[in-house]
Amino acid sequence: xxxAGPFHAACIQLxxxxxxxxxxxxxxxxxxxxxxAGASLVMTPEVTPMLEPRGRLVLEKARPETxxxxxxxxxxxxxxxxxxxxxxxxxxxxxxxxCANRSLLIGPDGAVAARYDKIHMFDVDLExxxxxxxxxxxxxxxxAVVADTPxxxxxxxxxxxxxxxxxxxxxxxxxxDYLTVPSAFARPTGRAHWHVLLRARAIETGCFVxxxxxxxxxxxxxxxxxxxxxxxxxxxxLADGGEEPGVVMAEIDPARVREARRMVPSLGHDRPYTPPGxxxxxxxx
Length: 285
What we know:
Layout (H helix, E strand, L loop, with lengths): L6 E7 L6 H17 L4 E3 L11 H7 L9 H11 L2 E10 L5 E8 L5 E6 L5 E3 L5 E3 L11 E5 L2 E5 L8 H9 L2 E5 L6 H19 L2 E4 L3 E3 L5 E3 L3 E3 L5 E4 L5 E7 L2 H9 L14 H7 L1
Parallel strand pairs: 1-2, 2-3, 9-10, 10-11
Antiparallel strand pairs: 1-16, 3-4, 4-5, 6-7, 8-9, 11-14, 12-13, 14-15
């Protein structure tokens, strides 16, 4: 646990285009705005450089991380503004058939401090005809990531991961004080679940939750929910980005993590147990 004092964190809320050339100026302007307002940690949404709804086109446009032309621009932006910048995620080509949905934490020197590939794939059919098959073009990650910062440790996750609480418990027990959840949440599930799931993850772990989100209408009629959130370790929403692009910011006191975990020390109360069905199997033997 860090002994650092309070700092300001900012979530950037965007309506990313399918063309990274159109998205970057809007994203850069908001990062600069957040930095000018005093933010030391600035975070952008899932698929920040381009929100391309067609999986085939994602595969055509994506490049390996070392060959991507947009990552160097975001690294330069971190150096220019002097902030820790979480590039919420970007599509990174990993083989002939699939990409990784990769979140990158960039230090104020422009170096990539940590990488996380989204583990849980959004393969669902929603009411109203919306259907998503993320696993067709994305390779699931296989490793949870906790990264060091001047204010403590960050557990890096992405969007649909938020529905799998054991991931968050694992990173919190590995020392995370903060959880990042950059997202491009669909509107139907956003209205129903966004706030309650993020507040639950904060309460369960005693962590701050930072959830920068896509908002508005994108190419091919794709609509995202917005409402970028900053949630404190007791589950209180400190800031909500609403439905329009912009910057949402809050002062973060790391001492709140220690306080919440002292009041409810559940991270240290795990007990072994037999999963349902196992007792019957043993009895049959």
